[in-house]
UniProtKB/TrEMBL annotation:
PANTHER family: FUN14 DOMAIN CONTAINING, FUN14 DOMAIN-CONTAINING PROTEIN 2. Pfam families: FUN14. It is a multi-pass membrane protein. GO terms for cellular component: mitochondrial outer membrane; nucleus. Transmembrane segments: none annotated. This is FUN14 domain-containing protein 2. Binds directly and specifically 1,2-Diacyl-sn-glycero-3-phospho-(1'-myo-inositol-3',4',5'-bisphosphate) (PIP3) leading to the recruitment of PIP3 to mitochondria and may play a role in the regulation of the platelet activation via AKT/GSK3B/cGMP signaling pathways. May act as transcription factor that regulates SREBP1 (isoform SREBP-1C) expression in order to modulate triglyceride (TG) homeostasis in hepatocytes. Its main location: mitochondrion. Belongs to the FUN14 family. Keywords: Membrane, Mitochondrion, Mitochondrion outer membrane, Nucleus, Phosphoprotein, Transcription, Transcription regulation, Transmembrane, Transmembrane helix. It is found in: Mitochondrion outer membrane; Nucleus. The lineage of its organism: Eukaryota, Metazoa, Chordata, Craniata, Vertebrata. GO terms for biological process: autophagy of mitochondrion.
Length: 151
């Protein structure tokens, strides 16, 4: 009788473990994005992932907004001062030389973009794989980033 009770307990334990494994495999993001939903999705709850993604996204968006404003002000102010100095006669711009340098830079940029093709493709593939594996954190980050830009 002791053996049969032990056998029943082991059978129940095996069924509970099987049910737990089945439940782990049936998460909604697994059904949408495949069974390999990544390490972050398995370590933390959905609420924690969204909070982490949202907070980091908000910080990134806020910094992006502030740095963008400073950069735009610096570039715009610099161009304005150069134009005022040019019109006032303080500086003389050799426009033919500027055009020559711009064309040279265009050629170098075109040459370097042709060489960077495979590296860019692997970066895009790795980024896509990361987004698929960590979809909850990524969606929280995007939402936080947009909120950070708006604030």
């Amino acid at each position: 009788m002791a053996n049969s009770r032990k056998d029943v307990e082991e059978e129940i334990y095996d069924k509970v473990v099987d049910l737990t494994e089945y439940a782990k495999r049936q998460r909604w993001w697994n059904r949408l994005f495949g069974t390999n939903s990544g390490p972050v999705a398995e370590k933390y709850s959905v609420a924690t992932q969204i909070a982490i993604g949202g907070a980091s996204g908000w910080c990134a968006g806020y910094l992006f907004q502030k740095v963008g404003k400073v950069a735009a002000t610096a570039v715009g102010g610099g161009l304005l001062l150069l134009q005022i100095a040019n019109n006032s006669g303080y500086i003389q711009v050799d426009w033919k030389r500027v055009e020559k340098d711009v064309n040279k830079a265009k050629k170098q940029l075109k040459k370097s973009t042709n060489q960077a093709g495979p590296e860019l493709n692997t970066f895009v593939e790795k980024s896509t794989e990361f987004v698929k594996k960590n979809i909850v954190v990524t969606s929280g980050f995007i939402g936080g980033f947009l909120l950070g830009l708006a604030s």
